[in-house]
Structures are given as structure tokens and as C-alpha cells.
Amino acid sequence: MIHTLRDAIGVFDSGVGGLSVLRAIHAALPLEHLVYVADSGHAPYGDQSEAHITQRTLTVGKWLAEQGVKAITIACNTATVVAAQTLREQMHLPVVAIEPAIKPAVALTRSGVVGVLATRQTVQSASVASLVERYGANKRILLQGCPGLVEQVERADLHSPETEALLRQFITPLLAQGADTLVLGCTHYPFLRDTIQRVAGDNILLLDPAEAVARELSRRLSDTGGLSQHTAPGQVQFFSSGDVAQAQTVMSHLWGASISVHALP
Ligand code: DGL
Q1: pTM for the structure as a whole
Q2: Is residue 244 part of a domain?
Q3: pLDDT tens by residue, 98-125
């Protein structure tokens, strides 16, 4: 089965959150074969050292390259801000990486205050500091680490009182400071969109850059002549480094269809 990964697009995340990016890629590029790796056995990345995140990113990236994928999408903000540069240096493939949507948020805010919800590693990173410096002039960018949220999504616990209480704890201070736009700076959080919107209120704008990532991937493949020439719909395959039975249940729920998940060799 693994040789059918040749010419697929590899997409990976620390866990199940990158499925929010995968669905945008699948919608934008329906003829492409896609292979998704959830590194759930090592999630959450956001509470771990940079060395560990870099090592996992390189391990998964190299595995995908060995299977013959034609491009890699990092569907994990934490892996991007810590390790995208290192992965790009070591891969001879296009690498497209998600990053928090601070630039579009700055263009869209009316109050001039933007909240960024992300993992602790992401909000502490030099990459996010540089995004804030580049795009945040004359605006207030409030960076909010959200420990615990990734774990809720890894359990597909999207609507419980515990999840809502965690979100309230992270979002209330941002609203109190005038934020009218919230950046979903972790790919797990789009699965909490309904609960986030309920906590934040209908007039708060939520930004998820998944579709922009899909467009960028499409552009990169088109520029290099790498777009699929198939006429039939592409296949999507799923791998996990975590407990496969649990991954199968949670990923089927989040993907919205019953899927088979294979153990990451
Ligand atoms: N989905 C990852 C992100 O976008 C979550 C990282 C983690 O496992 O903490 O940052």
C-alpha cells in the first residue's frame, strides 16, 4: 500500500488537528492523492522542547520523502515556527507551511486589537515575534498560549463544559482588552470553532489560514508542473504514531467519514 504514496502530497501535524488543513487541501485539489500523518504518539508538540519538535518534524518529513511524496505541507503551526526552516534545508521537495494568520488579522481588525490563540511554543517563538514586528505596527497583538486545548481535540472533546471553560479562560482576557479578531493559530482549534464562537460572541471574527495554505500549495505545484494529471478523484490515506484504534475513532469523527488509519511504521 505504501508505494501508492508516490506522487501524493504529504501533510502532517503533531496530531489530528492538521485534518482541518487536509480538508481545505482536499477541497481545493480533489484530484491529488493525499497522505496524512498524525504524530499523536508525540503530541502535544506545544509543551515540548524545540529540539524534540525539530527531531519529530525531521523524522516525519523524511519518512514522507522516502515514500516518494512530491510535496510536504506542515499542517502544524508549532512545527512551522520551530522547525520549518530546518526541514526545508534538508528536503529536496516543496515544503508549504501554515503559520498564524497575523497579517490578514491586522488588515481586518476594526478595533485595532487582535488576539492570537496558539500553543505555548508558538506564542513564545521568534517567528511569531517577527510576524508581530512586521505586520503589527499601530495595532495591539495579544498572544495567548492555550495549554490543554490540543489534548481536548485529540480526544474529540469539542463541546464539553470542560472545553468551554478552558476556552473562556483564554478568550475572556482578550475580549476585555478590546480584541475583535481572533487568530486560530493552531490547526487543532478550527475543530473548536463553534465553541470558540459561542464563547467569544457572534461579532468576533475568527481567522483560520487553512484555505490560504491550500492555495499556496496549489500555486507551488502549478509553478513546478507538479499538479496531478489524474482525472479520477485522489485517494486520501491516514497514518498515526499514536494508538491506532483511538486514532481511527477520533479521526473518522473529525474527518466526517469512516476512515482506515494505519500505524506509522
Ligand atoms: N496543531 C498543532 C499546531 O498547529 C498543535 C501543536 C501541539 O501539538 O501542541 O500548533
Answers
A1: 0.96
A2: yes
A3: 999 999 999 999 999 999 999 999 999 9
